[in-house]
Amino acid sequence: MLELSFLAELLADTTPEGEPSDTVFRLVLLVLPHLTQPATANLAQLYFEIWYLKLAGLYPSHRHCHLCQAALGEDSVVFVEAGRPFFVCGRCPRGSRSVSADVVALLDSICRSHLADVFRLDFPTSDVAELRSVTEFLLQQTFERSFRSLKLIYRQT
């Protein structure tokens, strides 16, 4: 149920006051029933976080290197942490955190699929956890804040 607290905190602290957003509202309605179910909460929260950033135009491209614009594929992809939230290819200067091809495949599936279809795919929980970590880092970097609910969620796991 901490996922619901995080959802409320994120929306309260990052959505413009008095500015309606039908797409964000529909996204919340889509994930809300799944956040109350232990079996689906983790993936539903990840789906929400990615799409929330994408709808705001804030999720970096995972298809092209931010530095050289080369297509990102099977080679090692790196997530740059040092205040630079984007993906780069293995040929460009690396940051401190590598992201596996399986995690990039999960990200791609979430970006291309409806939540119901994502639930049908079989991704290891470790890949979901790794992508959540990357996405939550992006949320905190993008909105320049640390979310209290995230700290509680991490303490619980």
Task: Give the arrangement of secondary structure elements.
Layout: H1 2-14, H2 22-35, H3 41-55, E1 77-80, E2 86-88, E3 97-99, H4 101-112, H5 115-120, H6 125-142, H7 148-156
Antiparallel strand pairs: 1-2, 1-3
Helix pairs in contact: 1-7, 2-3, 3-6, 4-6
Written account of the structure:
The relative contact order is 0.16. The chain has 157 residues and is mainly alpha-helical. The protein has a three-stranded antiparallel β-sheet. It has helices at residues 2-14, 22-35, 41-55, 101-112, 115-120, 125-142, 148-156; strands at residues 77-80, 86-88, 97-99.
* C-alpha end-to-end distance: 13 Å
Overall form: globular
Largest sheet: spatial strand order = 2-1-3
Describe the largest sheet.
Answer: 3 strands, antiparallel
Beta fraction of the residues?
Answer: 5-15%
Computed Rg: 15 Å
Order of helices and strands: HHHEEEHHHH
Q: What's the average pLDDT?
A: 83
* Alpha plus pi helix count: 7
The helix content, as a percent range, equals 55-70%
Query: Spans with pLDDT under 50 lasting ≥5 residues?
Result: none
Report the strand count: 3
The secondary-structure class comes to mainly alpha
Oligomer: single chain
Describe, in short, the structure shown.
By secondary structure, this protein is mostly helical. It has seven helices and three strands; from the N terminus they run αααβββαααα. It has a three-stranded antiparallel β-sheet.
Descriptive key words:
157 residues; mainly alpha; 7 helices; 3 strands; 55% helix; 6% strand
